[in-house]
From TrEMBL:
Upper lineage: Bacteria, Bacillati, Bacillota, Bacilli, Bacillales
NCBIfam families per the UniProt record, alphabetical: transpos_IS256
Keywords per UniProt: DNA recombination, DNA-binding, Transposable element, Transposition
Keyword DNA-binding: yes
Molecular function GO labels: DNA binding; transposase activity
Top-rank taxon: Bacteria
Xref: InterPro entries: Transposase_mutator
Name of the protein in question: Mutator family transposase
Organism for this UniProt entry: Anoxybacteroides amylolyticum
Coiled coil: none
Gene Ontology biological process terms, A to Z: DNA transposition
Function of the molecule: Required for the transposition of the insertion element.
Similarity comment: family membership: Belongs to the transposase mutator family.
Amino acid sequence: MAQYQITVDSKLLRQLFLGNSQDAGVAALLESVLNQVLQAQASEQLAAEPYERREDRQGYRNGTYPHQLTTRVGTITLRVPRIRNGKFSTELFARYQRSEQALVLALMEMVVNGVSTRKVTQITEKLCGTEFSKSTVSELCKRLDPVVNAWNNRSLRDSRYPFVIVDALVLKVREEGRVRARGVMLAYGVNTDGHREILGLMLGDSESEASWSEFFAWLKSRDLRGVDLIVSDHHGGLVRAVRNHFQGVTWQRCQTHFMRNILDATPKALQEELYPRVRAILDAPDMDTARLLLEQVLESYESKAAKAMRILEAGFEDATAVLMLPERYRKRLRTTNGMERLNEEIRRRERVIRIFPNRESVVRLIGALLIEIDEKWASGRKYLDMNEYLAWQQTQVPEKKASKVTHIR
């Protein structure tokens, strides 16, 4: 990724920290930074700085033209470079604006459907201009929806995904004049190259087994393959759907949720004492050690925290399934913490909307944001080095593997 040297003058900083409008200061800072990035990209493409004389330069500047970019802190003006006898190219605002545009569209739909607050109307008019209509919203949706839908329904055949993490969010959606709770099911996978990839999202009526079954069937119809381990919380409908659609695949119960379930059932006076004992079980170097520590904890606390011990014993096999893998993969695959961080990024946008105007706006806003995150993951560092896993997998003959896999209960 290119590194750019950015300068900020004292006047702009004064406006940012001491000005009457904080948003105006942030907008001015953002505008200054992005314009400097555009100029740096032009220098990269031309292989020369402004007015620099070089024999190997690739062309010449020909001024700039203004480009309006709508953001959550206001509309800023970018000065896009022109190149003589050529074309300047940048993905700076093209990629950035997808999720911003989806956010604005959701606000606009709230207004045109007559359900927005006065504050939302003011924000939307500030971002989009003083007037807009249903036809304006429709035209903007036509530009964005095909991009999001094509990405969300793309084929997954080109990769194998040994590790898949799934979770759901509950959002409020206005349907037929009523506000209803709807579940957004999400999944990301780690492919054999070691990169994370968002597999898709689907809006369901609830987090029921039927909704999860539909979600998994949809992923499989897009050629999701090579799954060896699925990580999720202990939602009953989800687990049953995994068992039906991925028979023989190992299910890892999220250890964070598991620990929370145990402590919630533990008397408060014992929680601080019990936590490190259970943590030692989950962090055991191998299954034999984990079983030994389990027996010791059960013996020590079965009379003092009977309910917690029943939860621990019943969930032990599922919560320690990750111990079958080489040690380097266990930390990142024993919880859904990575998915929780992804969910928080979605919540930051969802809190602005609060109640989505329709189902389409949910897929549009969340999908546009996930596209940008997915592109960032694909171009960044590998999430896991898969070489050791792939070598280990080759050693797992069917008989041996069957003895190690913790099947879904």
